[in-house]
Amino acid sequence: MITASILTIGDELLIGQVIDTNSAFIAENLNLQGVSVKRILSVSDSIEEIISGLNICSDSQIIISTGGLGPTRDDITKDAMCKYFNTKLVRNNEVLKNIENLLNNRGIQNLNENNRKQSDVPESATVLENNNGTAPGLLFEKNDSVFVFLPGVPNEMKALVTKKVIPIINVKFRNQAVVHRTIHTFGSFEAILAETLDDWVTNLPENIKPAFLPSAGLIRIRLTGIGSDKAELEHLIDVEVEKLFDIIPDIIFSTKGENLEEVVGKLLLEKKLTLATAESCTGGSIASIITSIPGSSSYYKGSIVAYSNDVKTNLLKVNSNDIENHGAVSEIVVKQMAENVKTLLNTDYGVASSGIAGPDGGTANKPVGTIWIAVAGPKQTVCKQYSFGKQREFNIRRSVLTALNLLREMLVNN
Length: 414
Description:
The protein is an alpha/beta fold. The chain has 16 helices and 17 strands. Helices cover 41% and strands 25% of the residues.
């Protein structure tokens, strides 16, 4: 197995000022190539710490570093490279030309010395042209390992990883085919699903490895096959996915890595149906995730965020006596919300949410985490009560996904 280490450089990472998303992107893309990431390490803007980090990571075949390649005084990664690889900085005219062109396109005609310094690169490095920024990527080879240094700006790093780094890795290290398949499920818990699938996991072919990746009710099952024959790997994974449909057919919603909002959108589009939402506890989050999909205007008409009871009665036409007698968090109220928004916005389906997201507002009969979801369709309205817990953010996220999944089930079955 090819191994990799990821080294991120910058004081801003260590004080929590900047969240490290670069490592997640790099690790995911390496994993897709069958490369095993053995560590992710962050170090400060210090030559000594950078060199220490490189030494720690040097037991991997691939070391990818981000950060510290900018034009300011604290960007000292190139100085650390020179010390570590026993080389010196030299001005690279091709890099300088790239910087000039990039800045000219941005309306900057006169380069200052800081800009020019970015064209100084370690003499023994291979330059990876950066078409999105002024700091080039740099590659070294030492003791059978490949060291790659990338800028920390996410869009620059991502372009270099996908267009430069991954192709280099595949040429240098690839001797086996790698096939990934991600199956998305909703409605179970990791421990329960792992127990349910224990025999299936035990009997997987030796060259196919599973991973369970949970988040807020969603559990992704990723299958990774490694071998000499890609077609054979794809066939083996197809067989295992079919077995999953025999074991957990009710909770699988995608075998192509699609999110719930994508699956629901495709179903609405294929069936030429429309949707509206009425939200209380989710505060517009259902509408937000639906409209995050390009082309959603073809099937989604709009939302009424009825956070207060006045909006529920005046705008959504929910019966005020029902709210008084049963409370806003009740079956009778959420049912009216779904059905009335469907009528008011003239759609085929209406989805509604009402609950106590927390951390306050719960009672003995309706504790924090009590959520009602309703889906009104052409033939019926389905209402269900859920108890999610005491964490507000989790309750909202889980409510959104539950509403989408309830809608998906109705679309599939009708």
